[in-house]
Amino acid sequence: MRIPSELVPKCPKCGQPLTMNLRSDDKFVEDEGWLAAAARYENFLKEKQDENVLFLELGVGYNTPSIIKYPFWRMTAQNPRATYACINFGEPLCPTEIERQSICIDGDIGRVLRDLK
Fold this sequence. Notes:
Elements: H1 32-48, E1 53-58, H2 69-78, E2 82-87, E3 102-105, H3 109-116
Parallel strand pairs: 1-2, 2-3
């Protein structure tokens, strides 16, 4: 169950092994495309901040909750017209402050979506 080192992709400039672009260290790449998408997302959130909004969280755990989970909770708490919904196997949680605005489902995402269909 090992990957031969010659199959690991390498950087064409420095020859170092490539890794996934994850927010796990200081090497997360925020290039022009990423920055443009982040600006569009921020604009969308500003435009919709007082409207009916569904913050749908699918399978987000606690590895990096500050990216999706905590912002969704905060934005739900700030907007009485917002709903927070999560489908998460084993961790369908929300703060008590937004329980009345939340739908938390404990289950396999694929199965839950098939059942909803």
